[in-house]
Write a structure and sequence with these properties.
2,3-Dihydroxybiphenyl 1,2-Dioxygenase, domain 1, 128 residues, 2 domains, 9 strands, alpha+beta, globular
């Protein structure tokens, strides 16, 4: 069994698509648009077959995204080496994204950083 995909609602579909394509080497499909409901989405595929669906619809409600809230906490991307964790973290910081932690070795042995990515969503970058 495997997770087929994870879905994320966003306000700016194009900005979210560009974020995951630019920083995490995602490949986006053609935008889906349901003209009847106003729903729009992209599936973004990553090298190992994992997919992220980013979605938007007219009646969405913006809610605060506290790191200590219930529900999904973050999306983690493995970039396969400490050097790549360091480089991507630095690149995101230089591009104006806020680094929450790291790069560092966590208590459970991961080498990771956490950045607040597109639309205040938490993204972990790990070597594992």
């Amino acid at each position: 069994m495997k997770i087929e995909h994870i879905a994320l609602y966003v306000n700016d579909l194009e900005a979210a698509k560009n974020f995951f394509v630019t920083y995490f080497e995602g490949k986006a499909n053609k935008e889906y648009h349901n003209v009847k409901t106003g729903f729009r989405s992209y599936f973004i595929s990553f090298g190992d077959g994992t997919r992220l669906e980013i979605m938007n619809k007219p009646e969405m409600v913006e809610a605060p995204k506290s790191q200590s809230r219930t529900g999904y906490a973050h999306i983690a991307f493995s970039v396969d080496s400490r050097e790549r964790v360091d480089a991507l973290t630095q690149r995101l910081q230089q591009d104006g994204y806020r680094i929450v932690s790291g790069p560092r070795v966590t208590g459970d042995g991961y080498y990771e950083s956490c950045v607040i990515g597109v639309e205040e969503n938490f993204i972990e970058i790990t070597d594992g």
